[in-house]
Amino acid sequence: MNAASLPNSVSAIESAALRSDRFRLEREADWQRLEAIVTRMEKGRLRRLSDEDLLALPGLYRTVASSLSIARETSLDAATLAYLEVLVQRAWFVVYGPRTSLWDWLRGFLGGGWSAAVRAIWIDLTVALAVMIAGVAVGWLLVAHDVNWYHALVGGDMAGSRVPGATPQALRGTLFGEADRPGMSVFAAQLFSNNAQVSILAFALGFAFGLPSLMLLVQNMASLGAMLWLYSGAGLLVDFAGWLAVHGTTELFAILLAGGAGLHIGRALAFPGNRPILQAASEAGRRSALVMTGVVLMLIVAALLEGFARQMVDQTFGRFVIGGFMLSLWCAYFFAFRGNLGKVRAA
Question: Which of 2-11, 149-158, 214-223 is least confident?
C-alpha cells in the first residue's frame, strides 16, 4: 500500500465505524428491551413481565431480525453482527420454541397422552389383533398339513435346534437352564431384533392403505404358530407359552400397537371421510407417531425382560406370573387409566 492510498483507507474505516455506531444508536433501545425480556423468560421470571412487554415481544423480535438482515447486507462491524445473531437466536426459541420442557412433555405423555392415543385407534387395534390371531392359526395349520412349511416360516438362524424331528428332551433343553447357556442370549437377541424390525415396518408400511402392515403381521405371527405346533407335538406347549410370556406379553403387545398405528394411517388415507385427505393423513400420522413413541419404550422393556427376567426365572409358573403381570399392567394403563392428552397432542 502506497502513501497516497493510506489516507483513503483510514477514511473508509472511519466511515464504516461511524455508520455502524449510527446504526446501533438508532436501534439499540429495541435490542436492549428485547434482550431484557428474553433473559427474564429464560430464567423463568414470566410473572415479572408486564403485559406491555409480552405484547411487544413479537414486534421486537421482527425488528431485531430486520436489523440483523440489514447488518449482514451492509457488512457492519463483526461485534454488532455477532451480538444480533445471538439475540435473534435466543428470541426465536422464546417466541416460536416449545412451550414445555422435556420433563413436562414426558409427564404429559405417560400421564395420559400415550394411553389416550392408543384408545383413539381401538378400531385399528381390533383389526390388527384379529389378523395376528389369524396369522398364528395359519402358521399352525400350514405346518400341521406339511412339515416342510416349518423351514419356510421359521428361519434357520432363529430355529437353531428347534426343528421338526427334535426329541422332547432337546426341545425342553431350549426352554430351561438358559442362564448357563450363552447361546440362548444370541437367540433372544435375534428374536428381539426380528420383532423390533416387524414393529417398525408394520408402522412404516401403513401409508399403502395399511395392507402391507397386515400382511407383515400375518407373516410374523405365522412363524410363532409354527413354533407353537412344534412344542405342542412334544407335549411342551404350556412350557413354551410360559417361556414366551415373560417378554412376549410386552413384545407382542408392542407389535400389535405398531400394526394398529400403521393401519390407522392407511385407513385415514383410504377413508378420509368429510376431511381433505391430507388433513386426515396428518391427523392420523400425529396420533400414530405418539403411539409409536410408546412402542419404542415397550420394546426396551421387553428387551430387559428377555435379557434378565427370563434367564433368572427358570420355571414355568414364575414365568407366567411375570408375563401375566406385565399384560395386566399394559391393559390397565391403556384401557382402564383414563388420562387425557394433557400437554401431548395426539391429534
Answer: 2-11
- Cβ contacts of residue 279 below 8 Å, gap of 6+? 272
Round to whole Å and give the CA distance between 185 and 137.
Answer: 28
Q: What is the pLDDT of residue 303?
A: 85
Domain ranges of the chain: 11-96, 103-336
What's the pLDDT score for residue 189?
62
pTM of the complete model: 0.69
